[in-house]
Specification:
The chain has 2 domains: 8-126, Gcn5-related N-acetyltransferase (GNAT) (Aminopeptidase), CATH 3.40.630.30; 136-296, Gcn5-related N-acetyltransferase (GNAT) (Aminopeptidase), CATH 3.40.630.30. The radius of gyration is 21 Å and the shape is globular. The strands form 2 sheets. Strands 1, 2, 3, 4, 5, 6, 7, 15 and 16 form a 9-stranded mixed beta sheet that branches. The chain has a 7-stranded mixed beta sheet with strand order 9-10-11-12-13-8-14, with helices on both faces. The chain has helices at 18-24, 34-44, 94-108, 145-151, 154-164, 178-192, 199-209, 246-249, 253-267, 283-289, 321-331, 335-345, and strands at 8-11, 47-54, 60-71, 75-80, 90-91, 115-120, 129-131, 134-140, 169-173, 213-220, 223-233, 236-244, 272-279, 294-297, 299-304, 313-314. It contains 12 helices and 16 strands. With 351 residues, it is an alpha+beta fold. A hairpin with a 5-residue loop joins β2 (47-54) and β3. Helices cover 36% and strands 29% of the residues.
């Protein structure tokens, strides 16, 4: 590898001290915990790799989780970490982080992977092509809900108040709200033309990480109309999954959902709200920015088989004509059909 670091170890299961290392690392994300990678194997049957660096005394000095997604029709690729925004190399020493990445490439190469994507949170050096099509949106939270109200512009406040006049009800829970969350989420995904995750994926997250998670459901006319899946880590709240029924958007139920999740984050003492990743210049990015959220670069890097590493960047979503056609067809599927088919292929997609 060319750097003076100890050899890397590649395991299919994490060592017993993996999570203790993650918990103590200042730069760690919730999704660095081993259980997030193990979900890919547990729910979808994917191969998982846990790459570890240790010093001369045997103490962990760096970790890198990798998930291989292989499907006969959808391709063979790997991600650190699949299905989430964060999860690249974790090490205090940038040289060790780079060596972990290089060792990961050596590990997935013989598996036939077309590419390996590192979803990092900081800039790295090395022969990697950086994706430049995604950002995350973050909002610095005030100390009180009252202060948040003052920060919002009059237009946004009026939209939230308009929704509140509909007699909406907020419910907060975990596994007790999974069915209601999933019903809204699955319908929204069909409307977007995207195969939905199986419900067991979210159930597995809650089973492993319930203390870090909350579900928020907004009821309208006695029926779940919007829902969000929140995760908490240190001083940050993230909403990786959210959805609203299309007929409820006209009365601002989606605005009410985001007001409630922001209020919940403040009530829990969080100082940052992460709206999740968005495609640059997309409608979802503009929706999040209206709340005051600011774009933060995502340092997503790729090794690609047979591609010149001197190229500076790469577009991430290879949405050719076939994919666009598939999206249009999926939107027209009956909901029950989409909900049966989606879980069969969603785990193989490059989320």
């Amino acid at each position: 590898m060319g750097l003076n670091v100890p050899p890397m170890t590649v395991r299919e299961t994490p060592s017993a001290d993996w999570d203790a290392f993650v918990t103590a690392a200042p730069a760690a994300q919730l999704t660095h915990l081993s259980g997030w990678t193990e979900l890919a194997r547990e729910v979808f049957g994917h191969r998982t790799l846990f790459i570890e660096a240790r010093d001369a005394s045997g103490m962990l000095t760096g970790v890198l989780p990798v998930v291989q997604q292989k499907h006969w029709a959808l391709g063979n690729f790997a991600t650190s970490v699949a299905f989430v925004t964060y999860g690249g190399a974790l090490a205090a020493d940038p040289d060790i982080a780079r060596c972990l990445m290089e060792r990961a490439v050596q590990a997935v190469g013989p598996l036939g992977c077309r590419y390996l994507e590192f979803r990092d949170t900081e800039e790295r050096t090395g022969p990697w092509r950086r994706r430049d099509d995604k950002v995350t949106l973050r909002l610095e939270l005030p100390g009180s809900v009252e202060e948040l109200t003052k920060r919002l512009g009059s237009k946004l406040r009026s939209q939230v108040k308009r929704a509140e006049r509909e007699g909406l009800i907020r419910r907060v829970g975990t596994r007790d709200l999974l069915d209601d969350f999933y019903a809204v989420f699955a319908e929204n995904m069909r409307n977007l033309g995207t195969p939905v995750y199986p419900k067991r994926f979210f159930a597995a997250i809650l089973r492993r990480f319930e203390p870090y998670c909350r579900l928020v459901v907004i009821d309208w006319h006695g029926r779940p109309a919007a829902a969000g899946f929140l995760t908490f880590w240190r001083d940050r709240t993230e909403i990786p999954w959210a959805a609203c029924r299309s007929d409820a958007k006209r009365v601002g139920v989606n605005m009410k959902l985001y007001w409630e999740v922001l209020a919940l984050a403040i009530e829990r003492g969080c100082t940052v709200f992460d709206f999740g990743r968005s495609t640059v210049d997309s409608g979802t990015e503009r929706f999040k920015r209206q709340w005051g959220a600011q774009p933060v670069p995502l340092w997503w890097y790729r090794w690609e088989r047979g591609i010149d590493s001197r190229a500076s960047s790469v577009a991430g979503d290879e949405r050719g004509r076939a994919m666009q056609l598939a999206t249009r067809i999926w939107r027209r599927l009956p909901l029950d059909v989409a909900n049966r088919l989606g879980p069969l292929i969603s785990g193989a997609l490059p989320w």
